[in-house]
Amino acid sequence: MPFLNKRFIKKVKRQVPWVEHIINNERTAGDLNVDSSAINVQTHEGSLCLVCRGSRMLCGKPRCPAILKLYSLLKTEKNVNSERMIGSSPPGVFIGHIGHPHVYAGPLVPPVLGDTSVYDAPEQWLGKTVDEIIGFRTNLIRAKFRVNVTKPFKNQNFVEKTLEITMAREPVETRVVFKKRPSGSLLLDGEVQPMGPSAVMRNMEIETAKFDAKIERAYGDGDLRAEEAVMELFKGGVPVSKIQRAFSVGAFGLKNQRRIVPTRWSITAVDSAISRELIDEQVKGKPLINEYRVYEFNYLGNRFLVLLTPSSWRYEWIEAWYPGTVWNPQSQNIAMGADWEGYHGRTTYASIGGCYYAVRLAAAEFLASIGRQAGVIAMREIYPSFIVPLGVWINRESIREAFKNEPCKFSSLKDALDHVRTRFAVSLDNWIQTSALLKDSLYQERLTKYLEK
Amino acid sequence: MKYRHKKNGELDLFKIRMSDAKLLRDAVTAISTLIDEGTFVIGPDGIKLRAMDPSRVAMVDFAMQKTTFDEYASDQETKICLNLGELLKLLKRAGKDEAVELYLDEGTGQFVITIRGKYIRTFRMPTLEASEEEQGLPKITFNAKVTLTTDGLRQSLEDVALVSDHVRIETDGEKLAMNAKGDIMGANIELKKGSDALLSVEATEPSKSTFPLSYLSEIVKAAVATSDIVTLEFSNDMPIRLDFKQTYDGTLVYYLAPRIEVE
């Protein structure tokens, strides 16, 4: 390796001892030839990554998620090497939740000019490779400012400009001056979503944006409640990710009740509000489907199956994490998690997380579109080839896609479950054990059987 | 969901007055644990409602005789379908010792609730399309009959809910047993003859049946405010009948379908 700079290796060695193993690779070495102070590597105590160092595949995944993220981050780093940056925001924003109600908020800007709309539009991501998706994420540089979510007016300049970006119809040319050069943070952990570098802003300028008329109208209406605004936009065909983005910057709601909402909460809030409304208004009370149906979709090492049963509305989301490798002591068993709701919905937050609500949206949307009612049991089996978590959108969009395919139809629950059995690696007994609704369908009797004729 | 705005010629006016709104409020609370919308039949003898929950696992059979009311005038049967959640919101506005009056505004098709206390409040709510079908009752031969305090039943169910989501109710004519088996934990509750909570127990043959706690606990929780004593009737792997004795002249009965376990 003739061009390898010795001094540089030492530097890396001191900071992140594990990197020396991958530096044998010429490409990596070339990539690493940046000021490495820009990337801050962290890890958990006792992390497998420290033992593995990206070479032994201890987590059981076919590719090292940390290295994948590192490459992507390094590529971005090379494009932002000063305190000034210009790029087209897709449009995108990110509101952190740490320190709530004092959070970091601000636009997401890639170091690229032009049509960047796909960078923050999960609706268009289905079918892309994991490298591309990580690329979208890490390419978005998070320009941030501190703000109190309940007092956005205290930081009016930044908040207003960020708001303008979220309401734009097309990517917005954005110039940002940072307090110091953006730095990425690489957490050595296969379970954390990839993120781009971030830095606190000193100044921000945006071109005059063309607004999305529907969002602008909802923004201008100070008497429209936030949920109503969200629903109106959804019915008007505005993509969920756009609604969620404007929602997070406090674009909707009664005039004096608007506030900034952290991104991860706003995604769930929007998914939950839309699906709840669809279920109450367009699913409940509709005729039941006539048969058992199984829809399927496979993507990036995930198998999604949706079982629809001819019963009143009820919903369950089950995830099964396949063991990475048999010799990995941490995951010898399949990890399964589930949450469900009956006809009346649930009053507590689903412990399994935001994916529950994202999938509920996809299911409610489908049932509303066919004007029928059904019980929904959505199942996801995750294989080792699913390298890095990518966010709840993958569940929403995959289930939406599943519903576009022709279902397998069955006249009995037994036949439907026999089909499910053949599609999954996890045994049917495990699914039934985990699923409250499957158990209910199999074991719970109905009063109709006993009614006097 | 269609709102009935026009005057329906067949409907006859009724007017009902109750000096303590709490009775009515508790009854509606108990009903609304199973259903969102309910069709009340207001007849010459009193008010009735019978309905199954949307999953058809449970049924509520409710009646309040006219003697419960301070004023009751209804010449013929009138069916009124109401959103129970909305109705409850309005009834909750009535405080202690405040009287409530109910009637149907035939002109607008609206249900009118007047609360008379320190001042007079009048609420109007839309009526929904009433179901024409008369709900039949389950036909079951019960082999066991157990009477116990509602509070005793509620506490027992709270205990078993800690370990499982269903409970097996069992009697041999001497005692009432409630067993729950979770994945890793179990619970056993025995109420013997002579215990404070158990008032009477009889069985023509030993009987046991398993029920979902998601329903059973909710039913008992909702009914506990209306009743001190409950009678359970059941048989082997058959629905259970829960009769909550009311303090007024009326009935509050639930039916719940069993869970058939494959061992």
Radius of gyration of chain B: 20 Å
Percent range for β-strand residues of chain A: 15-25%
* Content-based structural category of chain A: alpha+beta
Helix tally of chain B equals 4
Q: How would you describe the overall organization of this protein?
A:
The complex is a heterodimer of chains A (453) and B (263). In chain A, 36% of the residues lie in helices and 21% in strands. Chain A has a six-stranded mixed sheet, covered by helices on one side. A six-stranded mixed sheet of chain A has the order 12-11-13-10-9-14, with helices on both faces. A two-stranded parallel ribbon of chain A has the order 1-7. Chain A has helices at 6-15, 26-31, 48-52, 65-79, 130-139, 156-167, 213-220, 226-235, 240-248, 263-283, 354-370, 393-404, 413-423, 428-434, 436-443, and strands at residues 39-43, 84-89, 93-95, 102-109, 141-148, 172-178, 184-188, 198-206, 292-299, 302-309, 314-321, 335-341, 375-382, 408-410. Chain A folds into four domains: 6-79, no CATH class; 84-206, OB fold (Dihydrolipoamide Acetyltransferase, E2P); 216-282, no CATH class; 285-450, no CATH class. At the A-B interface, helix 15 of A face loops of B.
Q: Could you provide a short overview of the structure?
A:
With 453 residues, chain A is of the alpha+beta class.
Topology readout:
The complex is a heterodimer of chains A (453) and B (263).
Chain A: H1 6-15, H2 26-31, E1 39-43, H3 48-52, H4 65-79, E2 84-89, E3 93-95, E4 102-109, H5 130-139, E5 141-148, H6 156-167, E6 172-178, E7 184-188, E8 198-206, H7 213-220, H8 226-235, H9 240-248, H10 263-283, E9 292-299, E10 302-309, E11 314-321, E12 335-341, H11 354-370, E13 375-382, H12 393-404, E14 408-410, H13 413-423, H14 428-434, H15 436-443
Parallel strand pairs in A: 1-7, 5-8, 11-13
Antiparallel strand pairs in A: 2-6, 3-4, 4-5, 6-8, 9-10, 9-14, 10-13, 11-12
Chain B: E1 14-18, H1 21-32, E2 37-42, E3 46-52, E4 58-65, E5 71-74, E6 78-83, H2 84-91, E7 99-105, E8 110-116, E9 120-126, E10 144-149, H3 150-161, E11 166-171, E12 175-181, E13 186-192, E14 198-203, E15 207-212, H4 213-223, E16 229-234, E17 240-245, E18 250-256
Antiparallel strand pairs in B: 1-5, 1-7, 2-3, 2-6, 3-4, 4-18, 7-8, 8-9, 10-14, 10-16, 11-12, 11-15, 12-13, 16-17, 17-18
Helix pairs in contact in B: 1-2, 1-4, 3-4
